[in-house]
Predict the structure.
Amino acid sequence: MIKLWIDTGKEKGRIAPEIYGHFSEHLGRCIYEGIYVGEDSPIPNENGMRTDVVEALKEIKVPVLRWPGGCFADEYHWRDGIGPKEKRKKMVNTHWGGVVEDNSFGTHEYFELCRQLGCKTYVNGNVGSGTVQEMSEWMEYMTFDGVSPMAELRAGNGRKEPWKVDYFGVGNENWGCGGNMRPSYYGDLYRRYQTYVRNYGTQEPVSKICGGPNADDYTWTKVVLETVYEGMQPGAKPMLDGLSLHYYVFPDNSDKKGSALDFDEETWYRTLEKALYMDELITRHGAIMDKYDPEKKVGMIVDEWGCWYDVEPGTNPGFLYQQNTLRDALAAGVTLNIFNKHCDRVKMANIAQIVNVLQAVLLTEGPSMIKTPTYYVFHMYRHHQGALLLDSALTGVRKTGVGEWEVPEVTESVSKGADGVLTVTLNHLSATESRQVEISFAEDEKHFRVDEARILTGEMREHNTFSEPGCVEERDWNEYCEEENKIRVTLPPCSVVMLRLAPC
Ligand code: AHR
């Protein structure tokens, strides 16, 4: 039997709520249709934002939302998206499908969306094709509370009060779509651009995010950090608060990434093995960061992650619209458990992307909206946000898989909330077998009872559709028994389980 051992006395750090963050880009039907339908739409909305989408997102407690890209960010000129909508510039979204971008969703609309969601803001600036002045003036426009040309422009556009920018990304994927730069060149540009990302007023300073590596490009991390830290006086504040990391799971690695819905058992394990690779990436990039920042003050910001498949047949290839199955739920579950376990270094993560693009939590079609299996994982895991990671370990876990693709049967993470309630999240990766797990505690004198038990499970390809939106849903679960100070659970195949354990 597998044993999960929890030491409630050993707190290993706070899980930043922002680990459960999201990403929204001007790509396909993410912003337009997915989030923003405009004030005059027959689809119920508040100031243009779809009410159904905002309500669903509030239920998963979205802590932070990154915008406007992605690759789009390094082509975005923020002045195109302010002022009267009828006068806003119409342009071609060259990266994503060559469609017309009418800029009706811009800076003001983004902050309105974050207000409705009650989340932090993460604005990504343009280094690839933008100037230092443009970036600097955007910060002034958004955050300056006084007399200045940009504050006046903002007020003229109907917003007197400044907004709060919590995070600012200095470029995106500057090794690729953001300018095809070499790491030392980007490192120098980062030093220069970030200088003008000013902090205005008395608000908490903005956290500056430096553009980090693609997947296992350790050279990028090393050279960028070397460049950014060069000449820094001991004890001085570094020029960055976070370094980004992007990692997507491509189940196939070929030109075709594979179907989101039509896959076999081998591909199930291949996908999950690739999702688990996130652990090695964080460990190895983290080791390079440790050299410059041994106290771990600079966060690793995994601001793009998720599964990437071929687009759904018949949809625009540039829109990256894909379905979402139990496989995606398990990929999300294992990844979020990895982030929790690395909460000393990972301070934010943003799944790509929030609605209708890649591994989305919500899909829309006209006035209809469905929740994907990935949505329910974020819902079950929401209790980890801001909680304390506890020391925990699994024993007796075997490997399971097909051919060369092997994964551990079960992964887990455990946290303790301010109310003393523990949240245990377990992923059972076997596509076919059930498995028992016995949970026990290092401190015998402390007892816990199951307060709530929830599960998401089904056949590996199961998913929700607009005609059958409730095929895969999180539900109450009672496949456990409590004995003395032990809890025994029986995990069905392909399952994500969340237990809330209250002290008694
Ligand atoms: O999320 C889709 C794209 O993937 C983003 O625009 C880019 O940053 C990454 O390559």
In short: Residues 25, 69-71, 172-173, 304, 352-353, 358 surround alpha-L-arabinofuranose (CB under 6 Å). The longest strand covers residues 2-14. The domain at 10-389 is CATH 3.20.20.80 (TIM Barrel). The chain has two domains: 2-9+390-503, 10-389.
